[in-house]
Amino acid sequence: MPAVSLDNVTKIYGRDTVALEDISFEIPEGEFVVLLGPSGAGKSTMLRVLNGLTQPTEGEVIINEKPVGGERSEVGMVFQMHYLIESMSAFRNALTGALSRSNFAQSALTMYPDEDKRAALEALETVGLLDEAGQRAGSMSGGQKQRVGIARALVQDPDLLLADEPVSSLDPKAAKDVMRYMKEAAKERNLTTVASLHQVNIAREFGDRFLGVRDGELIFDGDREDLTMDVVDQIYYGDDEAAKERAENLATTAPERGEDDE
């Protein structure tokens, strides 16, 4: 059985705004999948459907043979904005991933079982931040904060990890570091992962499989070898030759980033 299955999923907002249209695919356990597509294509809606925050208008989402809905502790989420409590340490922020397993009194008193504390330290080690466990989150770099966000999701011990544009606000080096740690964590735990990305070069470097979404439709499903520039153009520009030409001109005239730009 696949770890994740979407069966003819459609999501319509209001009367006629189609965010997703008749999408079906399966993801085997441990696969690292990257969603590609322009803004407004439906990537975020797809992630929200996968984590149960949005119910599909039609179709069904299955994770580990269970329909998505209600309790979602089996799905971990890494956000574009890390949403850390900046006054708390990296360790305390990572530990909040165990909240779904703690009762209210324990959470209010920040009393966690030793096994949760060990899980938080192990997750921070996985993302290369064990030595910074006591550092206040507010004093960390953007890339470090995002890695704490990954650690927090890992502490949740999910069956599925979702990431919504996790590196869009980072410079290229920090973005690659975050993706490398996320990919290593997924491989180490055989964790099925779906991440939406805008940066095609980073996507190609870290993805095992790529799903291209445009206007709410799944128009591409393939591996790295299948993801040619013609396919990328189709995903992002469709048949809009003028937009494609503007993008190519911008790419050729944009200045190179130097170390001082990062």
From TrEMBL:
<dbReference type="InterPro" id="IPR027417">
    <property type="entry name" value="P-loop_NTPase"/>
</dbReference>
<dbReference type="Pfam" id="PF00005">
    <property type="entry name" value="ABC_tran"/>
</dbReference>
<dbReference type="InterPro" id="IPR003593">
    <property type="entry name" value="AAA+_ATPase"/>
</dbReference>
<dbReference type="GO" id="GO:0005524">
    <property type="term" value="F:ATP binding"/>
</dbReference>
<keyword id="KW-1278">Translocase</keyword>
<dbReference type="InterPro" id="IPR003439">
    <property type="entry name" value="ABC_transporter-like_ATP-bd"/>
</dbReference>
<protein>
    <submittedName>
        <fullName>Phosphonate ABC transporter ATP-binding protein</fullName>
    </submittedName>
</protein>
<feature type="domain" description="ABC transporter">
    <location>
        <begin position="4"/>
        <end position="240"/>
    </location>
</feature>
<keyword id="KW-0067">ATP-binding</keyword>
<keyword id="KW-0472">Membrane</keyword>
<dbReference type="InterPro" id="IPR012693">
    <property type="entry name" value="ABC_transpr_PhnC"/>
</dbReference>
<keyword id="KW-0547">Nucleotide-binding</keyword>
<dbReference type="InterPro" id="IPR050086">
    <property type="entry name" value="MetN_ABC_transporter-like"/>
</dbReference>
<keyword id="KW-0813">Transport</keyword>
<dbReference type="InterPro" id="IPR017871">
    <property type="entry name" value="ABC_transporter-like_CS"/>
</dbReference>
<keyword id="KW-1003">Cell membrane</keyword>
